[in-house]
Amino acid sequence: MPNVNPWRAARGRQGLYSALRQFFAGQGYLEVETPLLVPTPGMEPYISAFETPFVPETDLGKARTLYLHTSPEYAMKRLLAQGAGPLFQICKVFRNGEVSQTHNPEFTLLEFYRPHADYHAIMDDLEGALVAAGRAAADAKEGEPGADPAFFTRTPYERVTVRDAVLRATGVDIHQHADGASLKRAVEAAGVRTGDATSFDDVFFHLFLQKVETGLGHERPTFLIEYPASMAALSRLKPGDGRVAERVELYSKGLELANGFSELTDAVEQRARLVEEQDLRRKLGRAVYPLDERFLEAVGRMPPAAGIAVGLDRILMLLLGVQRIEDVLLFPAHGFV
């Protein structure tokens, strides 16, 4: 059990979910549920899924490996392709091996999508949702030590490009460096330790963790936008500037809270990116998951859309003013690992 009053965390979670559901209903979003047990998990190179064997007891299925989902993203995008309007979901997700002060292998995501919208619209919706959550928390927790629900009501949230965030932290302009070797020389001159990293993305990772991330979102939440194109993940490239992707992350007090995109709707490009991630997983010695063909087929039928995933346990940590994820969980992972 956590070292703070567990009922404080439970009441805070109840209030957070209630405020979010009220906000999204008011914005015309439909709450949905998608399967936790899936035939194909996400392909992110540094995320490992929990595997479980499916052993049928009738002739209606065949034995196979299934996975606890790492995100509801694939399923929710299939719903968008079927013509759904704005969708949101509050659900458990699972990532094997993730245990730290701010990680738990089982945690709660808010994930939502708006069709015919881009990353600017999804940022506005998330800002509105967190303002509503902050106000509700302030009403319920006035006077509680350490709580800072008003933090999320400090609007407008900052919006800064990755390029500008790196510039102000180090003086390095990442757009002036086309490859890993060039970026490595520049950031090492700025005091970044890059070890044996050679690729642009790996050098950037060292730069970001050492010089940028911890400085984000201290006066008010910060949306970090427009990541280098090589880090597009499932986002589209910015029209008119192919150097960057329409990807956004939300940071508060140096902690990542959310990750979202203007969604890629090119099925051919999406397949190519997933194959590249399979290759990278193979090189890293990680399990290589099969492609989700139903998801790939749906990508090409999706309308223009934007979506974002938000770690609600971390939101609750900030609302309650605690430093450890275990302090907002009734049964944190250290109870079984």
TrEMBL record:
Signal peptide: none
GO biological process, one term: lysyl-tRNA aminoacylation
Keywords: ATP-binding, Ligase, Nucleotide-binding
GO cellular component: cytosol
Pfam families hit by this protein: tRNA-synt_2 (PF00152)
Ranges for domain Aminoacyl-transfer RNA synthetases class-II family profile: 16-332
Classification via Gene3D superfamilies: Bira Bifunctional Protein, Domain 2
A Gene Ontology molecular function term of the record: tRNA binding
InterPro entries named among the record's database cross-references: Aa-tRNA-synt_II, aa-tRNA-synth_II, aa-tRNA-synth_II/BPL/LPL, EpmA, Lys-tRNA-synth_II_C
Name assigned to this protein: EF-P lysine aminoacylase GenX
Organism listed in the record: Corallococcus carmarthensis
